[in-house]
């Protein structure tokens, strides 16, 4: 008989229980698509992907717990932020001043700083979260408001080498007005970064879309017609 062993706290399982049925249609005809690393004994190291033979729904089984799913989502956001920063680095490696619009807690400037250690990042957001971000030294200057606010425009006009709108335009009521505001706070020769899931669907009443709007506003679009990250250079002053 061994003595009392130190009680160990079991780790939180990263996956929920295995499902016998399709979460979409309830069918039990499930087919593994990717195999996990030897399941059965203890927790599997990763969740295999299964496909329903009836409705073709594809899902992780066992599913991730909500906490694990959130951490996967956060990792995805960090990855997108890094890709956006690197896309700008190829076109504009040494900006002095950068405004991130709709910055929230300044997650994007925090990620971009790894690629632009000598750049001064400011943040603009409609909420006071940006003030907390400044207190946490995630941005140097914080502005509460929108690009379309006259006091913001008057203060920031032609001040920045780079302006970024990362998953922002698709959330605002008047994306075209915000886009023009972003161009007004850029210096001539400055670079605009717009990261959207599908830039062609931003302006549903304007079928030629984001790139055409940028050209109409005096910019040269440096990315392809279908890019999810649009980078444009402002060639002239915008009225
Ligand atoms: Zn199904």
Give an overview in words.
This protein is α/β, with parallel strands linked by helices and 239 residues long. The chain has 2 domains: 30-63, no CATH class; 74-234, Vaccinia Virus protein VP39 (Rossmann fold). The chain is built from 6 helices and 10 strands. The chain has helices spanning 66-91, 107-112, 129-135, 150-156, 175-185, 209-216; strands spanning 30-34, 49-52, 58-60, 97-101, 120-125, 141-144, 160-166, 186-195, 219-221, 229-234. The protein has a 7-stranded mixed sheet, with helices on both faces. Strands 1-2-3 form a 3-stranded antiparallel sheet, with no helix packed on it. The longest helix is centred in the N-terminal third of the chain and has 26 residues, at 66-91. It starts with 29 loop residues before the first strand and ends in a 5-residue tail after the last strand. The structure holds zinc ion. Zinc ion is lined by residues 22, 24-25, 27, 52, 54-55, 57.
Could you give a short description of this structure?
The chain folds into 2 domains: 30-63, no CATH class; 74-234, Vaccinia Virus protein VP39 (Rossmann fold).
Name the features.
alpha/beta; 22% strand; 239 residues; Rossmann fold; binds zinc ion
């Amino acid at each position: 008989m061994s003595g009392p062993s130190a009680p160990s706290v079991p780790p939180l399982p990263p996956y929920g229980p295995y499902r016998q049925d399709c979460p979409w249609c309830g069918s039990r005809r499930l087919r593994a698509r990717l195999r996990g690393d030897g399941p059965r004994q203890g927790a599997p190291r990763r969740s295999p992907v299964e496909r329903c033979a009836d409705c073709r729904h594809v899902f992780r089984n066992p599913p991730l717990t909500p906490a694990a799913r959130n951490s996967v989502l956060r990792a995805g956001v960090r990855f997108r932020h890094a890709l956006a920063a690197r896309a700008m680095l190829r076109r504009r490696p040494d900006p002095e001043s950068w405004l991130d619009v709709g910055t929230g807690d300044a997650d994007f400037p925090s990620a971009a700083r790894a690629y632009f250690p000598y750049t001064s990042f400011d943040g603009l957001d409609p909420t006071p979260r940006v003030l907390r971000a400044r207190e946490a030294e995630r941005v140097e200057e914080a502005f509460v408001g929108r690009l379309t606010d006259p006091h913001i425009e008057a203060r920031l006009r032609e001040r920045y080498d780079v302006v970024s709108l990362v998953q922002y335009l698709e959330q605002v009521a008047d994306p075209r007005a915000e886009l023009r505001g972003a161009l007004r706070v850029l210096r001539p020769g400055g670079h605009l970064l717009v990261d959207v899931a599908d830039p062609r669907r931003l302006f549903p009443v304007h079928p030629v879309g984001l790139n055409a709007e940028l050209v109409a506003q005096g910019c040269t679009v440096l990315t392809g017609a279908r890019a999810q990250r649009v980078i444009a250079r402002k060639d002239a002053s915008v009225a």
